[in-house]
From TrEMBL:
This is EF-hand domain-containing protein. Residues 434-469 form the EF-hand domain. GO terms for molecular function: calcium ion binding; monoatomic ion channel activity; sequence-specific DNA binding. Residues 29-41, 599-611 have a biased composition (Basic and acidic residues). Residues 29-120, 573-611 are annotated as: Disordered. It is found in: Membrane. It comes from Polarella glacialis (Dinoflagellate). One of its GO terms (biological process) is regulation of gene expression. It comes from the Eukaryota. Residues 49-94, 573-587 have a biased composition (Low complexity). Gene3D superfamilies: 1.10.287.70, EF-hand (1.10.238.10), Voltage-gated potassium channels. Chain C (1.20.120.350). The chain crosses the membrane at residues 165-186, 206-227, 248-267, 309-332, 352-371, 391-410.
Length: 611
């Protein structure tokens, strides 16, 4: 189920519930008026209530059924796989149409319900309408499942028609058809040779008479097979079928084949022969085998790419041939006009050089075919100097110009081959497989213990075994540094497994590639960035250390200044205290009376008196 179906189902369910709710009152009113006699209100009310209860129970049962159906449909929706986008669009389109039809039918049913006078109530009509809607929607769901299976089946058929197996089968049928056509031409040629009395062709036996009917039957069989192939590819690919030019060739071949079969009796023989020539276009169907054969594919691409070179090469050769043919025709014209020369000789020269077309054909023979015949006619009959002309022409045009043209073709082919992505992938895969196979052989030769692991003792045999060293050299592996090679191949465990040996040998195979150089450059850049980041970190660390040292010095200086200030402050405080004490002492001395001391008189005797 799609989202549109769920939405439609929800709308119908809601509409049904609303209609039932509206009609319930109407049913109660109608039945109370018509069916129940109005004798007493006590006798009618219980019957009406009982009928209402029955209707409610019926509505509940219907709701439960709808819910169960809705749950089942949701479970089916969860179990179903997601469909494709085209499928969903087709389904939505059908649902839109179905919704319109249901809405129109719903309006008709609602109109009919108003006209009914007996039999079913409006609720029953709505229930019947909802059942029909659910049935139709379930049919839509079942019908929509069928295109899904058909789409999957068509997808499988389309994949088979585009597979390599089908291409090989059709290619085999095409080749058999070509062989049958060749056999038919051979039989017709044999009969024609006998009728012309050509030497070596005897009268055909009785079996040859049946050959025409056999070839006609085989031709009809091949036309039927090609028609089936055309119908299958047209029905599956549809419009994409006509976007491929080769499919138009197949269509033309099939149409011409049926025209030849049904119109060979009344058509012009020339037109019939032209239709037979169209049948050879079936051989172009074999070109589609390029999807299977990569060699055929690269040849087809090279031929397609060399069309421009071919055109200009033919133009150059045509100009050269025109100049050479006209020169010879003008030079030998006096000889052909001379009446004294033998007419047979003049006719022979005229046959090769008398006209422009004859001269052109002769020059192409000189360039690509048997040139001595055309040269000898002029050398033996006209002049020997023409021999020098032919030698110069053959050396310049036949050697120089043709080799240049061939070189252009080769260069164009090589460029196409080098630019072809698929061919490059195939070549790389083949080279990889061949190299892995050789490395596997070398691993088995080194693994003397047979345990699937190579140790250093087994790997060191490469130093002494000349044959293995030569094998490594052929594989473009330098055996000079085996210790480093062993470390590169292994994972550091001291042993090398088969997978590690093959993967490591593949990595070190050959010279350095552009990818290796790019990786090396990126690694060097990352290393430089890491070194720069480490240098930046070291500089920042040194700056941080210097800053810390400066802070420590500043802190020490601040501490010293604080100590000095505290010392000075203490000294000042001591001095102040001393001064205060002195002042206090002086004040006390001033405030207390001092006793009068007796003065002692001292008699000083002169020194000379004492003496």
């Amino acid at each position: 189920m799609s989202d549109k179906f769920q939405k439609l189902l929800g709308d119908l369910t809601a509409q049904y519930m609303m209609d039932v709710q509206e009609l319930r009152d109407e049913v109660i009113k109608l039945k109370s008026e018509n069916e129940f006699p109005k004798e007493t209100p006590d006798s009618s009310e219980p019957a009406v209530q009982q009928q209402q209860q029955q209707q409610q129970q019926q509505q509940q049962r219907q709701q439960q059924q709808l819910q169960q159906q809705h749950q089942q449909q949701e479970q089916e929706q969860e179990q179903q796989q997601p469909q494709q986008q085209q499928q969903q669009q087709h389904q939505q389109h059908q649902l839109y149409q179905r919704e319109d039809s249901l809405q129109s039918s719903g309006s008709l049913h609602s109109g009919d319900s108003l006209q009914t006078s007996a039999g079913l109530s409006k609720a029953d009509l709505h229930a019947d309408r909802l059942d029909r809607a659910l049935t139709s929607l379930s049919r839509v769901e079942v019908e929509d499942e069928i295109p899904a299976a058909e789409v999957n089946h068509c997808a499988r058929i389309a994949n088979f028609l585009q597979s390599d197996v089908y291409e090989l089968l059709v290619g085999f049928i095409v080749m058999m058809n070509v062989l049958v056509m060749g056999a038919a031409v051979q039989v017709q040629g044999t009969e024609l040779g006998y009728s012309l009395a050509y030497p070596g062709y005897a009268e055909p036996n009785a079996g040859w008479q049946v050959a025409g009917e056999v070839f006609a039957g085989l031709d009809l069989l091949f036309i039927c097979l090609f028609t089936m192939d055309l119908l299958l590819r047209t029905s599956v690919l549809q419009i994409r079928f006509f976007k491929t030019p080769s499919n138009w060739v197949d269509l033309l071949v099939v149409i011409s084949g049926w025209i030849e079969i049904f119109g060979s009796g009344f058509m012009d023989p020339f037109f019939t022969r032209m239709l037979r020539l169209v049948k050879f276009g079936r051989a172009f169907r074999a070109m589609q085998l390029s999807k299977v054969s990569h060699s055929l594919k690269i040849m087809g691409k090279c031929i397609t790419a060399s069309v421009g070179v071919l055109f200009w090469s033919l133009c150059l050769l045509f100009i050269i041939q025109c100049i050479g043919g006209m020169m010879l025709s003008i030079l030998v014209r006096p000889f052909m006009e001379d009446t004294e020369i033998d007419p047979e000789v003049r006719r022979l020269v005229f046959r090769y050089y008398g006209t422009f077309s004859g001269s052109m054909l002769t020059m192409f023979e000189v360039l690509f075919a048997n040139w001595p015949t055309a040269c000898r006619i002029l050398v033996d009959n006209v002049s020997e100097w023409f021999g020098l002309w032919f030698i110069i022409y053959r050396c310049l045009v036949g050697f120089a110009v043709l080799n240049v043209v061939n070189a252009c073709f080769v260069q164009q082919t090589m460029s196409v081959a080098q630019q072809d992505t698929e061919l490059m992938i195939i070549t790389k895969e083949k080279t990889k497989k061949a190299y892995d196979r050789k490395m596997h052989i070398l691993f088995q030769a080194l693994d003397t213990s047979g345990d699937g692991i190579i140790s250093w003792e087994e790997f060191a045999v490469l130093l002494t075994d000349d044959r293995l060293r030569a094998f490594l050299s052929a594989m473009e592996i330098d055996p000079s540094d085996l210790q480093g090679l062993f470390e590169v191949l292994g994972d550091g465990s001291g042993n090398i497994s088969a997978d590690e040996f093959e993967m490591g040998a593949r990595r070190i195979n050959g010279a350095a590639r552009a990818v290796d150089l790019v990786q090396l450059v990126s690694m060097v850049k990352r290393l430089d960035s890491k070194i720069e980041s480490s240098a930046t970190c070291s500089r920042q660390l040194r700056q941080l250390q210097q800053h810390q040292q400066q802070q420590q010095q500043q802190q020490q200086q601040q501490q010293q200044q604080l100590v000095l200030r505290s010392t000075l402050k203490e000294a000042n405080n001591n001095n102040n205290n001393k001064q205060q004490q002195q002042q206090q002492q002086q004040q006390r001395e001033v405030s207390t009376p001092r006793p009068v001391a007796k003065k002692k008189t001292e008699i000083r005797v002169p020194l000379h008196a004492e003496l």
